[in-house]
Amino acid sequence: MPKAFLIDTTRCTACRGCQVACKEWKNLPPVPTKQTGTHQNPPDLNPYNYKLVRFSEHMVNGAVQWYFFPDQCRHCVDAPCMLVASNPEAIIQDADTGAVIYTELTAKENFDDIRGACPYDIPRKDPATGRIVKCDMCIDRVRANMLPMCVKSCAMGAMNFGDRAAMLQLAEERLAAVKKTFPAAQLLNVKDVSVIFLVADDPKKYHTHAVADAAPRQMTRKQFVARLAAPLRGLADTANS
């Protein structure tokens, strides 16, 4: 049965437990950083940080307001990155969970094409292996009936995981409750993704790529083959008439 996350940013305190837990479970190496004037660390997603709690600071009614956004792969229902991969085995979607998984074959893919197709700017390339990498929904844990590590580590209940139908219902319930305090609250890209964010304000205040880019999607392999085959079908129809 398809799975989904619900990330309720109104409950996130930016403890970064999810970020650290992800890194530890995946046994990813440390990344050298330096102070850039923000509590966010590292500055962006990278080949060794599949999860990143983003910090965004805004002035609201004369007071500083923090916006926290635990960024990660959205595991799109129809993943654009899958559609542009030259090898259909390089990026696959787990039939049981809907998890979008990058295999070792991504090392032979064009990184710019894969990253450019992602409406949330998630994929990164590992310079050590050449592979393109990102969150894999902790598929090893989920297949063992365990929660993804980021969800398991969330002490505030901001992160939830389960059957998609149950998460959609929970998302609507939480949205109704949050709207009593934050009228602008909304759910992001609900129909398109398996990682649903609940935000209390304008999504762009949280992160540039909190919502999908408006740019048109790349042509899919199927569409490309169909376009190439169309003239041939026309010739065949003429010959048979």
List keywords for this structure.
241 residues, alpha+beta, Alpha-Beta Plaits, four-stranded mixed sheet, two-stranded antiparallel sheet, 7 helices, 10 strands, 28% helix
Protein described:
About 30% of the residues lie in helices and about 20% in strands. With about 240 residues, it is of the alpha+beta class. The chain has one domain (about 5-230): 2-Layer Sandwich (Alpha-Beta Plaits). The model has no long low-confidence stretch (mean pLDDT about 90).
Which range does the strand content fall in?
15-25%
Strands side by side in the biggest sheet? 8-1-10-9
Over the alpha carbons, how many angstroms does the gyration radius reach? 20 Å
Report the major sheet. Answer: 4 strands, mixed
Query: Helical residue percent?
Result: 25-40%
Integer count of domains: 1
How are the secondary structure elements laid out?
Elements: E1 3-8, H1 17-25, E2 52-60, E3 63-71, H2 80-84, E4 91-93, E5 100-102, H3 111-117, E6 124-125, E7 132-133, H4 139-143, H5 149-153, E8 159-163, H6 164-179, E9 186-188, E10 195-199, H7 221-240
Parallel strand pairs: 1-10
Antiparallel strand pairs: 1-8, 2-3, 4-5, 6-7, 9-10
